[in-house]
Amino acid sequence: MKTAIEVCPVCAGSGWKPVLGALDGGVTRCDCRLRARGGALIAGARIPKRYEHCELSNFTTDFPGADHSIALAQISASRFVQEFDPRNGDGLLLVGGIGTGKTHLAVGILKELIGARGSSCLFCDYRELLKQIQNSYNASVQATELQVLRPVFDAEVLLLDELGAVKPSEWVWDTVSLILNTRYNDNRTTIITTNFADEPAASVTRSLSPARAAAREESLGDRIGERMRSRLHEMCRIVKMDGPDFRQKFKSASFG
Known about the structure:
Shape: globular
CATH class: Alpha Beta
Largest sheet: 5 strands, parallel
Order of helices and strands: EEHHHEHEHHEHEHHHEH
Number of domains: 1
CATH superfamily: P-loop containing nucleotide triphosphate hydrolases
Number of helices: 11
Strand content: 5-15%
């Protein structure tokens, strides 16, 4: 049984609506077309189902009573959206422990940029992206390395989630370098989350005693290389998010 196709009552399906008060009969894009484009951009952003609910507006609901730095991070995220200019390529590096809300905040930024600016955005899990690139080397796989990386290079705004989560190797460092340098040279905006402290690699930290050096936790410099960490500082504003792992906190409370 066929159903009637809904026609927008404002534009009568034309996609254009008159500009109120315009003396020359000017028109502008109808909200129905803007909503349709927004829906297509959201789908194209490939946001995982786990994070589909994430918005800047519900961040404090998911992370109530968070550390002061978390509240400041939300303010920084909102300001980033307000001041966003795709021409300058300025990004964000969200640094913090597991469960502090980095990905929630980053996805919220993507959604705001899609809804308010119509920006072309892409969510990439760092680990999954590296797996896809490695799989492209298999002759039985129909995708080439360039086909995997092209959307990553071309997205107006890229969210690279959990940078540094893969054990470093020369291949990993070369791949990270290719992605970040390409986007840097093309002046494209990159939003990055990482669980590793924004500190230098052990190889350049000479002031630590051997015992302290052995006991220190790995840093972002260790995981992606000091050269790429320096590049990130050129590309991104650093936002630190301290506090407990809220996922563990709520999980423990549910069994309390």
